Amino acid sequence: MRKIYSIAATLAMALMTINTSYAQIDFGGTAINNDIVGWGDLYEMSFTSRNYGTARSMAMGNAFTALGADMVSASMNPAGIGMYVSSDASISPIMQFTKSPTSGADKFGNFKDHSERFGLSSAGAVFTVYKGSGTVTNVNVGFAYNRLADFNQNTSLASYGYDANNSLANFFCTLANADENMPTPIAEGKDAGSLSFGYDPFYWGPVLAYKNGLINNDDQGWFVDRIGENATVDQFSAVETRGSLGEYALTAGMNIKDFIYIGATLGIESLNYMREVYYGENYSYAPGTEPAGDVMPYQLEYMNYSQRTRLTGTGINFKIGVTARPVEWLRIGVAYHTPTLYTMTLRYGGEMWNGTKSVGSNPENYDINKNGYVRDIPVATPIWEDAGNYTWEYRTPSRLLTGVAVTLAKRVILSADYERSWYQSIRLQSSPIYGLSYTDTMKECFKGSNTVRVGAEGYVLPFLSLRAGYIWSGSTLRDEYKDAVFTHPLPTEQWYATAGVGLKFNEYIYLDVAYQYGTTKYSQYQTFYAVDSEYPEYDIQSNLFTTKTNRHIAVVTLGVRF
User: How many domains does the structure of the chain reveal?
Assistant: First the structure.
C-alpha cells in the first residue's frame, strides 16, 4: 500500500506541502515526493495563459475570442472556424529560448540556467464543406493541433556552509526513525548494503541513503553514518523539466448570414511531462575537526541523488462558442470550455552514488582504489509504474472566454479578450492510492484566475501587416498564500509581450512571423525539509529559493488557402 499524502500548514508562513505527516513531523521538498502525482503536479499541468498558436495569433497576444479564421480558434472560440471563407491549411514551428534565474537566501545562492528547444506550436487544416445563399452562408470543418503549455525548463541552485544536522542524510534518518513501516536490515535479517527496496517507492530514498552509507541501522534505530558531526555541508540541486501539453481539435463552425457564427470543438489533449531532479552534497571539515580514522574509518566526501518522473496522459474536453457581428466593424465573442478529464500514467526511478574515502583500517574489507576511495557504483532503484488499472485520473478547471474586436477604416484591427479559469475546481478523480484526495487543498490554496489578452493589427500595404499584443495572467493563489513556501515551485503569474509581421504573397500563400517575450513567476520552495511542530529545534530545512522563467519564442507560420 503506497503512502497517503496529505496537506499540512506549519510555521507562521503557512508552509503548504505535498507531504506525509508522522506525529508532528511534516516532510517535503523538490528532492522528495517525486514518486507520486501531487496536487502541485495537477495544478502545473492545468496552468496556461494560452500564449501559443499561429504566428498571427501569437503576434496579436492570442486575443482571438472575437476574431476568427485562424487555427487557434479551434482551441479558443470554435465559432471562429465559421469565419473562414475558403479552405485553409497551415503549419507553425517554434523555437524557444528559456532562462530560469534562481535566487536563494544567501549571496552565493544565485544561479542562472537555460534551455533551447524546437517544437510545433500549431498545425491544421479547415475545409469549407458547404456554401449557400440562404440562412446558412457556409459550414466549415477542420482538424488542428495547438500547443497549450510548455514544460521545457532548466533550474540550478545551491547553498553553502550548512552544518551536518541540515544534510539530506539527517533528513532521511529522521524520516526512517519516524516511520514504523520503514524496512530495516535488522528486520530483514540482511547483511549491510542488501536492504530491499520493497513495494512502496516512498521509502526508496532512505534505502538508497542506506546503501550509499549516509545512514545506518542498529537495535537503537537509524543514525547518520560516515558524516562527522563537525562537517560543513554544501548543497547543490538542478531540476530539468521537458515536455508539453497539446490539443488535437476536431472542430466545426457555421456562418449565419455574416451575423452570427457558431462553433464547437471536441478536444483531445496529449500530455508529455518529464522531470529529472538532481540533488548533491559535499562534505568538508575545518582543519583539526576531521573525524578520527579509528572512530569513522569510512568518510563521505560527496553524495549525488538523481530521480526521474515521467507523466503521460490523454484528456478529453468540449468547447462551444458564438460570435456576433451586429455591424460590419464590430465582433463580440463568447466561448465556454468544459473541464478536461484526464487519464495519466506515472513512471518513477532514481539512483544515488557517492565518494567515500577510507581513512582507517578498512574493517569491512571494501575494494579500495589507489587513491584511497571505496570502489562504488551507482545504486539504482527499480522502475515504479502506475498504469493499466492503476492510473491517475483528474479534472482540469473549466474556462469562460469573452472577447471584443473592432475594425477601423478596414485597415486596423483592435482586439481584447478576458478569460476566467477556476483553478480551485481542479479535482483528483481517482488514483492508485486508496482514499487520496486533494479537494480541500485546491479549495484552500487556489482561486479563479483572470487572464487579459490584447492585440492590434494594421495593414501598412495591401500585402504587409504589422502586429503587436500583450498577455497578462493574474495570480492563481489566494491572498493568504501568495508568500507561502511550497514543496515545488508553482507557476502563479505570467505575462507576454508580442509582435509580428504578416506577408501575403498572393491570394493563396501567406507567411507570418512572430516573436514573444514573457516572464513566469513561481512560488517559493525548498529542496527538502522535516518540520517538527512540537520540537522546532529539531527542524531540518534547506534554503528557500525563488525561481522565475524568462522565455523568448520565435514562430513562423506558412499557410495556403484553396
Answer: 1
